[in-house]
Design goal:
This protein is α/β, with parallel strands linked by helices and 138 residues long. It has helices at 12-28, 45-53, 74-93, 108-113, 115-137, and strands spanning 2-8, 32-39, 60-68, 97-106. α2 runs parallel beside α3 (74-93).
Length: 138
């Protein structure tokens, strides 16, 4: 299975570790990461995910990010709009896009605690969804 990973640079101390965990998990699952793309923040992911899903050699896309709560509800706006856009892209192209983005309403300490579980599940989800899609197509 050929996959791509899109990772947010915002909160890089968390997201760079998420990327390392996702690469480790993908390797264990014998997945080929064809593209690794960085974007400024989670909100910027959909345009890159859209381009990746158009590629015939990509079976799914993993997104990695950490949306940490600030003093306003900006984190909720970012998380909701990003999740909606990624869901719409997954449906449009009938390819899995996993939501390895933590938040909203999360404090920094929570982001660190979620690095491994969220990153690993994002990789596992791509495989599971791809398998189910293939099963029901045949």
């Amino acid at each position: 299975m050929n996959i791509a990973v899109v990772v947010s640079e915002f909160n890089n101390e968390v997201t760079s570790r998420m990327l390392s965990v996702a690469k480790e998990k993908a390797d264990k699952m014998k997945l080929k990461i064809k593209y690794t793309c960085s974007v400024p923040g989670a909100f910027d992911m959909p345009i890159i995910v859209n381009a990746l899903l158009q590629k015939k050699d990509i079976d799914g896309v993993i997104t990695l990010g950490a949306i940490i709560k600030g003093q306003t509800k900006h984190d909720e706006v970012i998380a909701n709009s990003t999740a909606r856009a990624l869901t719409d892209l997954s449906i449009k192209y009938a390819k899995p896009v996993s939501l390895g983005i933590t938040g909203p309403g999360m404090q920094e300490r929570h982001a660190y605690a979620r690095i491994r579980p969220v990153s690993e599940r994002a990789v596992e989800a791509i495989v599971k969804i791809h398998s189910e899609l293939e099963r029901i197509k045949n």
